[in-house]
Design a protein that fits this description.
With 603 residues, this protein is of the alpha/beta class. 34% of the residues lie in helices and 23% in strands. The protein has three domains: 242 residues, Glutamine Phosphoribosylpyrophosphate, subunit 1, domain 1 (4-Layer Sandwich); 188 residues, Glucose-6-phosphate isomerase like protein, domain 1 (Rossmann fold, 3-Layer(aba) Sandwich), CATH 3.40.50; 142 residues, Rossmann fold (3-Layer(aba) Sandwich), CATH 3.40.50. α13 runs antiparallel to α14. The structure holds fructose -6-phosphate (F6R).
Length: 603
């Protein structure tokens, strides 16, 4: 996810910006850049790690007062190239921006007609040209800035500097985080998109909220919102860097569970349009002559593949098969060229998935990667790739990567269904409406988390856990069981609820804990009977459902929804939180569980 820094003052602007960007590295990025304004602008940008940018700036010196802005970019619109890296610039203005400008195509069209030329494929560049255009009809830079941001739809945290006011930084926030730290004694101002770069530099900060904008000059802040000029109280900054990176959460895993609603919005942005799904990452011809999609992955990513196979067949009405990377590569599979091979991987480095992708390519299949890390081996090898935009995931047990993969595959199933004429207009609209509701469903409420925290104390022992569900809730049961075993080290298995009577039910007794996924919108009565069968054999049962279940020993109530995918995402939150709370009570290292690695580059 992109990061922003800014500085105004007499200290070494270059070092401060580069240090700040270093602190933001943990969020992930694929290019970086800095602009410093003294007499003239100096702009440096480079692709890849920060070292490249540091080398480019080696001979550049800052003397005396200066103003600067910096950025780490995680590509969304346009590839990770130097031209697409921030800061973007016009004739006399430079800008850095986090978020996505949804109406950038319309703005760009108008600016092109007015004679502006663009050097990047980004949505951000429109802002800088729009500002210079607005200036023609404004008395002041601030008026032009106000007019500019009032025309932007979407999410942004942005910093703008312009040549005739070298002692000022303009800022605005809507939907993406932005923080200002002020050193009153030395008249210095520091901006950042999260706490980490500000620690050690300032003690008091302003956390801007949506709709706030203004400018800083010396130690003064001029701040506005829709009601006019406002005063804002400074808050204390956390002292510890790792604490700051965790943003108040106990573990990275917890933070990543909580930020799922935000990253899923990023995943959807620009791809979900009013009546269709749009991917500019590949042409529709990718599907010409394709009769089957083969999904291949490992671990949690395999669970996404399996879950989405229900969507491809039910929503997209398209044939799919699902493969474990470690099995596929050695089974001498029969591959035909009417198959699209889709490799799914959070890290993009998993050895078995990578080897399977190589095999598919060598057999002449068309290939697509669904991945969270741009420029990873899998992304580089595949013909096309869809990035999941989850931001860097630090917890070894995957959470937000799973959620964003699911959303990408859900979008792809609708895309394919529409492309092949398998979905009518109303069906497409219904699925699009559901996609738009997913981020809200992913908000963790205090009530839900508190309930799970309390309940977790009853699940710290026993001889095993069954996670059960039907249909797409079966792969979710597999994922719930994997999460629990990874971080609690308790034995857990996922099963289709209907399979119990074919063997596993022999294990049922009070020390066998069943975590039952009981959605209301799909196969409710069938799943309920399967849970009752286990209850009758005295298994201890925890039911997750929007409907009361009198025979349950424990019950976690989810909200009623009108689509099974909304139930799916809410139940996903529940199993993630439950696994985490059990592991915390067992005093395990939730972020770094024993024997596991974040990127599995060996087979
Ligand atoms: C579980 C987990 C692993 C990975 C698996 C594949 O929480 O993270 O099961 O899903 O190792 O990794 P990627 O998705 O990077 O290919």
């Amino acid at each position: 996810m992109c990061g922003i820094v800014g500085y105004l003052g007499r200290e070494n602007c270059k070092d401060i910006l580069l240090d700040g960007l270093k602190e933001l590295e943990y969020r992930g990025y694929d290019s970086a850049g800095v602009t410093i304004l003294q007499e003239e602008f100096a702009n440096f940008r480079s692709v890849g790690k920060l070292d490249g940018l540091v080398n480019k700036m080696e001979d550049f010196q800052v003397e005396g007062f200066s103003t600067g802005i910096g950025h780490t970019r995680w590509a969304t619109h346009g590839k990770p190239t130097e031209d697409n890296a921030h800061p973007h610039y016009g004739s006399f203005t430079h800008i850095v921006h986090n978020g996505i400008i949804e109406n950038y195509i319309e703005i760009k069209r108008e600016l092109l007609q007015k004679g502006y030329s663009f050097t990047s494929q980004t949505d951000t560049e429109v802002i800088v040209h729009l500002f210079e255009e607005k200036l023609k009809s404004s008395e002041t830079n601030f008026e032009a800035f106000q007019k500019t941001i009032s025309e932007l739809d979407g999410a942004y945290a942005l910093l703008l500097i312009t040549k005739d006011e070298p002692h000022r930084i303009y800022f605005a926030k809507e939907g993406s985080p932005l923080i200002l730290g002020t050193d009153f004694e030395n008249g210095e101002q520091f901006f950042a998109s999260s706490d980490a770069p500000l620690i050690g530099k300032v003690k008091s900060v302003i956390y801007f909220v949506d709709g706030e904008f203004g400018f800083v000059e010396g130690e003064r802040v001029t701040l506005y919102n829709s009601t006019g000029e406002i005063e804002k109280i400074y808050s204390q900054l956390p002292k510890d860097r790792e604490v700051a990176q965790k943003e108040g959460f106990r573990y990275f895993m917890e933070k990543e569970i909580y930020e799922q609603f935000q990253v899923v919005s990023d995943t959807l942005m620009g791809r979900v349009l009013d009546s269709k799904i749009d991917f500019d990452e590949f042409p529709p011809e990718l599907f010409d002559g394709i009769n089957e999609i083969k999904l291949c992955a490992c671990g949690t990513s395999y669970h996404t593949a399996l879950a989405s196979s229900y969507l491809f067949e039910r929503v997209g009405k398209f044939r799919v098969s699902v493969e474990f990377g470690s099995e596929f590569r050695y089974k001498n599979p029969l591959l035909t060229k009417d198959t699209l091979f889709v490799a799914i991987s959070q890290s993009g480095e998993t050895a078995d998935t990578l080897a399977s992708l190589k095999m598919a390519k060598n057999s002449g299949l068309r290939t697509l990667a669904i991945c969270n890390v741009d420029n990873s081996s899998i992304v580089r090898l595949a013909d096309h790739s869809l990035l999941t935009r989850a931001g860097i995931e630090k917890g070894v047990a995957s959470t937000k990567a799973f959620a964003t993969q699911m959303v990408v595959l859900y979008m792809l199933s609708i895309y394919v269904g529409k492309l092949r004429g398998n979905l009518n207009v109303d069906e497409v609209l219904k699925e699009i409406q559901t996609l738009r509701e997913i981020p809200n469903t992913l908000q963790v409420t205090d009530d839900l988390h508190e309930k799970i925290k309390r309940l977790s104390k009853r699940y710290l022992h026993g001889h095993g856990f069954f996670f059960i569900g039907r249909d797409i809730f079966y792969p979710l049961a597999l994922e719930g069981a994997l999460k629990l075993k990874e971080i609690s080290y308790l034995h857990a298995e996922g099963y289709p609820a209907g399979e119990m009577k074919h063997g596993p039910i022999a294990l049922a007794d009070p020390e066998l804990f069943t975590i039952a996924l009981l959605p209301k919108t799909i196969l409710y009565e069938k799943t309920k009977s399967n849970i009752e069968e286990l209850g009758a054999r005295d298994s201890t049962i925890c039911v997750i459902s929007p409907e009361n279940f009198d025979l349950a020993d424990d019950f976690i109530r989810t909200k009623p929804h009108n689509h099974y995918m909304l139930e799916f995402f809410e139940m996903m939150l529940v199993v993630q939180l439950l696994s985490m709370e059990v592991a915390i009570r067992l005093q395990n290292d939730v972020d770094m569980p024993r024997n596991l690695a974040k990127s599995v580059t060996v087979e």
